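Please predict the structure of the following assembly.
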Amino acid sequence: MTPLITLAARSAWNRRFVLALVVASIALSSFLLMGIERIRQDVRENFAQAVSGTDLIVGARTGPVQLLLYSVFRIGNATNNIRWTSAQVLAQHRAVAWMVPLSLGDSHRGFPVLGTTPDYFKHFKHGDKQPLRVAQGRAFEGLYEAVLGAEVARRLNYTLGQRIVLAHGDGAIAANDHADKPFVVSGILAPTGTPVDRTLHVSLQAIEALHADWIAGARLPGMALSAEAAAQRDLTPRSVTAVLLGLKNRAAVFSVQREVAAFRDEPLLAILPGVALDELWDVVALGERGLQAMSALVAVVSLGGLMAVILAGLNERRRELAILRAVGAGPRQMLWLLALEGGLVTLAGVAIGVLACWAAVAGLSGWIQGQFGLTLQAAPPGAPEWRLIGALVAGGWLASLVPGWRAYRLSLADGLSPRL
Amino acid sequence: MASSIPALQVTGLRYRWPGAASDVLQIDTLSIAAGERVFLRGPSGCGKSTLLSLMAGVLLADAGSVALLGQAWSELSSARRDRRRADHLGYIFQQFNLLPYLSVLDNVRLPCRFSRHRAERTRAGDAERLLERSGLAEALWSRPASALSVGQQQRVAAVRALIGGPGLVVADEPTSALDEDLRESFMALLLDSCAEAGSALVFVSHDSRLAAHFDRQLDLPALNRAGTLAAAAETAA
């Protein structure tokens, strides 16, 4: 076997250009596969990290996924609000460390507006318990001040001091806006890769002031209040959409959840964000499986290409194989030779692809985070990646056995005179 | 090795390509003595290459036997046949004999990589001595084989076939790509080297001018009963 290995190496070096193309094509498909797998995992991760450090989310009684969707992802609308008094009772519960109210419903050019308290910036965490960071300016202090999520500022090209007008509801009706009470941008948040990036944050009192002269979703005719006049009113909110709760001791989470469910004044629902996120992910898992199926197809197509390239090169090598036969190499050694070459070429291609993917993720993660709000991690391959790498190498090697087998057959049939 | 054992013995050989309707070769008997130089003539398509593959043990006879140095190929396993071919047979192709990515010297030593027997019979300096006699400039020995002209390549192929002194050298029209001057010097090299190594030589060509160099001349169509039968069948029809 040893004479063959050195010969195989010399022969491969002689065909280095074609082999480099094969290695490059395998590397590209490995890169693609690993990239898709990385994105798939990190999308899931990002999704799961949209909220952290919050023990319970409380809203009006509805489905857990529904509550999660509108309170965290700003998707859909709450069917009911909860009374401010209820929120206050929850805040004073002996097990509760902090309470952050969320008031949703208004928007600005398609981006949701969240009314909350300054505590939001202190307690709301995302990812691995990372707090929000104000990149420019400061949190809102005055009544008509707004803090923008990173994507809002970037997409609308807003800077500090910009004057903006909020719209009632989703802003679909042009006249339905709060043009009489303009806001000033006081701060812009650093990107988080969560729905926070697409949100404008104002105080609960601002939400109240905006609607001081509204009732049941419409402006009261002849009752218009100026911005200044509204500021003089009692701006204690009547209701909020949901509240985030942090507990003093996480162990109490289920007992607090039960107490909320049994709340006497109005029907409430408390959810554990992690559990609801898992339920929600199950809903979108179909798309994830689609992505996986696409990866598998890409792999199959590229291995087919590998096989075609080696097969196409085989005819040129029939003369070489005949010479080796004449000096005493057996057909089985030919098969072994080609299998060895195929295996090494596949291994090299996969290794390059995986390393390139890792380097690309490491190099571009900052840019991707800024552009798409998706946090990619240049982590060493985990179990799913190793399975993928194993499948790629095994598949590539098997694909290279097909030309090997053909060379074996040819070498048997040709004898010493290849019919070219 | 006793000289009474023929280098090659063919007895009652029949061979038919898989899927073919009739035999391509039927040879009752053909014996080539040790060290004998045989010229085998035949037009193209008469089964010359097939006969050579059978001699080299790459193909196996459907009936009868082909024996190299007294050992029938059909009695050996596939791996043993490969080893025996490496040990006792030198083969020269019509063209493209060399691996382009190996140097001239490495090409010459190629059989020694596959056969310990040939390696043991090759003394240090044999390859260089043979190359020197072939008239190939020493500067070319370490060059890749692809840098050589066709005539030079054929001479290297002859040297390779003879390294380690195999019992039989088979040459399949090795001069067909050479012009007259090159042909004469190649023939001289091949015949002298075979004589020196004591190797029998089966030389296939359709060029009758070369026949005079040989101890014996064989006409394959006359030898091959498959051909005469086919011809007879044609005449009858």
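Residues 303 and 396 of chain A are 6 Å apart (CA to CA). The mean pLDDT of chain A is 83.
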